[in-house]
Amino acid sequence: MIAAAGFFAEYGREMLQSTREHLVLTLIAMLISCAIAIPLGIMLARCRSKVLVNAAMGLVNIIQPIPSLALVAMTVVLFYLINEFLGARVLPTLGTVPALVALVAYALLPILRNTYTGIRQVDPAVVEVATGMGMTRRQILFHVQLPLALPFIMAGVRISTVWTIGVATLVSLVGAGGLGDLIFRGLSNYRISLILAGSAPAAALALLFDWLIGRLEKWLAPSGSQPTQAL
């Protein structure tokens, strides 16, 4: 108990500050990812061109095998090359902006795939009944397809959120802050207590959000259905 009190007395303020930064990065990245992936997934699910669907999915899918640290580094390099091409420092190569670009890119695929699959898995007979009742395509989307697909979409959001919390520990390497600051400082000095001060809150955040979104996912799921990741 005394050791724990000493630990929080020494690192408590830094842990709170870094956790706040980590949460802000994660939430902003997830909001941007959802704003891109959900509408795009709906458009692709309603698109009749298989070539366009495969091209869009393939483009997003390319990002996923890239190691997260390499993706963060490649974002910095990309911004640097754009600045060199334009002959001006238009994009910051360090800080929050490149970090958010990397986080958003990494979070897109599960949300996009699950949105696409969720819309596509709606029983065509249900859509036909709604059409027979005189509902427009827009009404069918918002009153039939999206409510039935929502558990699948939330499953994608849950997976992306957990991934983003983990990847966000790496963006401290480009000056974006977060719990990675404590982790890498501890690793560089081999200070176990400092590593713990960064890694424990990160693990706790991942478990907490996985549980919270998982509960919401189950609450939204229709009776007898079991939404899963569509990857």
How would you sum up this structure, described in words?
With 231 residues, the chain is mainly alpha-helical. It has a single domain, classed as MetI-like fold, CATH 1.10.3720.10. It is built from 8 helices and no strands. It has helices at residues 2-45, 50-63, 68-86, 96-120, 124-132, 137-167, 180-189, 192-220.
Give the helices and strands, then pairings:
Elements: H1 2-45, H2 50-63, H3 68-86, H4 96-120, H5 124-132, H6 137-167, H7 180-189, H8 192-220
Helix pairs in contact: 1-4, 1-6, 1-8, 2-4, 3-4, 4-6, 5-6, 6-8, 7-8
List keywords for this structure.
single chain; 231 residues; mainly alpha; MetI-like fold
Brief description of this entry?
The chain is mostly helical. It has helices spanning 2-45, 50-63, 68-86, 96-120, 124-132, 137-167, 180-189, 192-220.
Radius of gyration: 21 Å
Which residue ranges are poorly predicted, with pLDDT under 50 across at least 5 consecutive positions? Answer: none
Helices and strands: which structural class? mainly alpha
CATH top level class name: Mainly Alpha
Second-tier CATH architecture: Orthogonal Bundle
Average predicted local confidence, pLDDT: 89
